[in-house]
Amino acid sequence: MSDPIRIDSHVHIYQSAEEGIAAKEGYEIWEYGKQDEVAFCDVPGTVDDLVESMKKSSMDKVVIVNLYVADEQRAIYRKALPPNLGQGELEKAEGDIEARVREELFAFNRWACDVARDHAGIFPYVCADVLLFSAEENAAHIRDLAENEGARGVKLHGPAERFFMGDERLWPTYSVCRELGLPVIGHSGPDLEGKGFAEPRAFGAVLKAFPEIPIVLAHMGGATWQQAQEIAETYDNAFFDCCEIIEWTRSENGPTERQLAQLIRDIGANRVMMGSDFPWYDLDQTVDRVMSLPVLSMEEKEGIVGANADRILGL
Ligand SMILES: [Zn+2]
After folding, report:
1. Of 2, 115, 126, 190, which one is least surrounded by beta carbons within 10 A?
2. Ligand 1 centroid to residue 65 C-alpha, Å
3. CA of residue 156 to ligand 1 center, whole Å
4. How many Å lie between the centroid of ligand 1 and the Cα of residue 96?
């Protein structure tokens, strides 16, 4: 009998080791509170790192859900500006930075698609950003990437990009997703500003307006995991990945392993997918974490580790 399929539905890659290290250092995981035993992955997350990790963990497929944070890039470029610029020079420099950031997001998305074309088993999701582009520009960009570059879905990160998942400026993008059969994955969890950009309840409007689109709540709500079941019960098109939260069990605000397993069971184990959030965590270790959860049956765990993603994401 062949081994059950293995799919990691949530990984990130970086164009260079420096970029990966900077991204990991710049992304503070604060929401779960204290947990001293979290085992982080120690590679920067280049394409070679990912390919190596896929081999090591016998992963058949991975889904790239890259994140481009415009504010972080702006800060880097602003810091590099010469001091004492006059008002006119400063305005021009700001305009140049804005143009550069916009072009970078496009290029970052295209690069993920290029990587996927060159590597069997890698599936690219691409990002939209409602503060960086108009609603129509985002929709046109996603359409172009899906029709011409092989993009397979859309990734959104409300807290990092500072918009609500139900922001209606995303409606044209969601319409393209519905038309082209592209699933959407959104980071879910609290935000430092306390606005609720991406808490599970913030997904309600889009889940309701676009029932044909499978929408994945990454991290099962993170530290706002108590909202996940209500969303699952209300919307049939809500799906979940268990990355990050599975490494933060036994933290102040995360669930215990038993609570997490029970939540998966209550949501319906066939609606939950394994993700590693590589290069934050290792692929093989995440598989081990899923397989060692209590409550769930072997069949349910095998689905989480692969078959569910194949079905939900249409890989
Ligand atoms: Zn992630």
Report:
1. 2
2. 7
3. 10
4. 29
CA 245 to ligand 1 centroid distance, Å:
11
pLDDT for 298 beyond 60: yes
198 Cα: distance to centroid of ligand 1 (angstroms): 13
Angle of helix 47-56 relative to helix 283-291, nearest 10 degrees? 40
Per the CB < 8 A criterion, the answer to whether 102 and 43 are in contact is no
CATH architecture of 7-313: Alpha-Beta Barrel (3.20)
The DSSP bridge pattern shows strands 272-273 and 238-241 to be parallel
Q: From the CA of 54, how far away is ligand 1's center (Å)?
A: 17
3 state DSSP class of 207: helix
CA distance 106 to 127: 9
Ligand 1 centre distance from Cα of residue 89 (Å):
37
Mean per-residue pLDDT over the chain, rounded:
95
Q: Distance, CA 155 to ligand 1 centroid (Å)? A: 9
Query: pTM here?
Result: 0.95
Give residue 277 CA to ligand 1 midpoint distance, Å.
Answer: 5
Q: Which residues, 6 or more positions from 108, have their beta carbon under 8 angstroms from its beta carbon?
A: 15, 66, 68, 127
Give the confidence band of 37 by pLDDT, cuts at 50, 70, 90. Answer: confident
- Tell me the C-alpha to C-alpha distance, in Å, between residue 217 and each of 47, 141, 159, 170: 25, 23, 13, 16
Helix or strand or coil: residue 294? coil
The CA 85 to ligand 1 mean position distance, Å, reads: 37
pLDDT of residue 230: 98
Distance 187 CA to ligand 1 centre (A): 7
DSSP secondary structure, 47-114, as one string: HHHHHHHHHHTT-SEEEEE----HHHHHHHHHHTSPSS--HHHHHHHHHHHHHHHHHHHHHHHHHHHH
Say which residue the tokens 């270790």 belong to: 285
Q: What is the 8-class DSSP label of residue 274?
A: -
Rounded to the nearest whole angstrom, what is the distance from the C-alpha of residue 84 to the centroid of ligand 1? 38
